[in-house]
Amino acid sequence: MIIEPIGFVALILGVLILRQGPNFGLIAIIFASLLGTAAAIKLPALGGSSVVVAHFLMPFYVVSVARTLFGVPGMLYGLTANWAGFILLCFTVYGTLTAFFIPRIFAGQIEVFAITRDAAERSSIVVTPLAFGSGNITQTVYLIGDLVMFAAVFAHVRALGIGVVIVGFALAAFGNFTFGMIDWLTDRYGMTELLAPIRNANYAIVTEGTVGGIRRMIGSFPEPSSFGTASLVLFALMFEFYLAGFRRRIFGWLAALQFCVTLFSLSSSTLAGLSIYLALVSIRGGVSLAISTVHKRQIVLMAAALSLALAIALLMVSFSGLLYWGAGIIDRVLLNKLESESGIERTLWNLQGLAAFWETAMLGAGVGSIRTSSYFVALLANTGLIGTMLMFGFFIALVRSAYGSGQSRTQTRLARCFFWACIAALLPVLLAGTAVGLGLMFATLSASVVALRAKDDQDACAVPPLLNFQHRNFGVVPVSVRPSRGLS
Question: Residues 6 or more apart from 154 whose CB is under 8 A from it?
Fold first, then answer.
C-alpha cells in the first residue's frame, strides 16, 4: 500500500470526521466525490488500484454514524425494514457471490473485455479469457461501499434531518463549477501541472479533447463523461430545488452554473441525458399545468426557456457560419457518435457483454469481470438475469418511496427533488455506464429519498427484518426551508 501526499490530508480529514461527527463527515464525502482522480492510497497488490479520497473517507463517516445513538440499529433498520434498502442488500450479497464464484466456474470458457495494467501501471482494455482477478475484488468493494453508504445516510437523515445533505450538495455544486473553471484556465495558459496533486490516480486522464475547437471540460475527473455526469446530477438537484421553491436565488444560480459546465463537458452521454431530463421536466410541467398546480413563476420559467431555445435557433439560422459550426458539433457529439472509433469500440464491449450473458446461462460473468458501455448491459453481463431483476426492483422501490403516501408536504417535495436527481444520474450511465456500482453520490441521493419518505415503524416493517433487533422510531428533523408551489 502506498499513501499519496493527498492521502495524508484525507487522513487528517478522517480524524476530524471522528471528532466532529456525522454532519461534517457527510459534507466532506459529498464534496470529495468530485475528486475523481485524487488517489489517497494505491494498492500495488491489486494491480495498482487507486482508492480515491471519497472512498477513503467513507469508513470514518460510517464509524462516526455507528458511534451515535442512532448508529448501528438505524443502519440495519434502513436495510431490512424498507423495500429499497432490502432489495439493495439482496443485490449486493448476490453480486458479491457472483464476483467470487462465477469467474472460477466459467474460467477460460468465454472471452471478455477486461482492464489490464502493464509494468508501468498503465491501464488498457483488452479481450482476455474469463478469470478471477483484481477487478472482481475492487468492484465488489465498491458495491459493498455503496450499500454501507446507503445505510449510513439513511440512519443519518432519519435522525438528524436532511439539511446537511442539502448543504453538502450545494457546496459540491459550487466546487464542481470551480474545478471546471480551474481545469479550463490551467489548460488555456499551460499550467495543468497545478492540478497534478489531485490527478495522481492510475487512470487514463483525458485533458486534450476538443470538439469544434472547444476544449472539453473534465474538472477534477478523469474524462469529460464522468465530469459531465456529475455536473448533470448536481444541475438536476439544484434545478429541482429551484422548481420546488427552496431558496430560489441560491439554487437558481447554482443550477445555472452547473448547466454551463454540463454543456462544456461535450460528452455524448451527458448531453443526451441532459436532453432527456429536460424533456421529462417539460412533460411534468405540462401535466402540472393541466391540473392547475403550477405557480406562475414556473409558467414564466417555461416560457423563458422556450424563448431562449427559439432565439438560439434563429441566431444559428441567421449566421450560416455559426449554423455550420453548431451543426458540426451536434453531428460529432451526438448523431455520428457510434461511427467514431470510440463508438465502435464501445459497441464491441456491449456485444461481448451480451455474448457473455448468454454463454453463462444468463448468470453473468461476475461483478467486475467484464467491461461494457451501458449500465443495463453491465448488469446483464456481470450479474446476469437475477441481478438485473433485483436492481430493477430497487428502482421500482425508489419510485414508490418518492411518490407513495407518507410524510409532510415539505418532506415529499424534498424527496422528489432527490428522486429526480437519481433519474438524472441514471440517464448517462444507461447510455455509457461501465460498472454495476452507481457510486457514493447516487447512494446518498437514493438513501435521502427513502429516509424522507419512510413511514413509522409499523408501516415500514412490511418486509420482515432479517435480524431481530430493537429499533427506535427514527423521526425526521424538519429542515429549515421555504417551500412554494412548483412542479410536482
Answer: 74, 75, 77, 78, 85, 447, 450, 451, 454
Q: Would you give the DSSP letter of residue 45?
A: G
- How far, in whole angstroms, is CA 17 from its chain's centroid? 23
Q: Which residue has the cell 444541475?
A: 235
Residues forming a β-bridge with 115: 125
Cell of 425: 444520474
**Cα(262)–Cα(252) distance, rounded to whole angstroms?**
15
Any idea what the Cα angle at residue 72 is, between residues 69 and 75, rounded to 5°? 110
Helix-strand-coil split of the chain, %, nearest 5: 70, 5, 25
Residue 285 identity: G
Does this model's pTM top 0.85? My answer is no
Beta-bridged to residue 42, according to DSSP, are: 2, 50
Confirm if 234 and 176 have CB atoms less than 8 A apart: yes
**Inter-residue contact 130 to 110 (CB < 8 Å):** yes
Q: Is the dihedral of CA 448, 421, 416, 375 positive or negative?
A: negative
**79: part of which helix (H) or strand (E)?**
helix 71-80
Please list the rounded mean pLDDT of every run of 10 residues in the chain (488 residues). Answer: 83 91 92 86 72 89 84 83 87 92 84 62 66 83 92 89 90 93 85 80 68 74 86 92 84 90 83 82 73 61 58 51 47 50 69 84 85 85 91 91 73 88 91 83 92 55 33 37 40
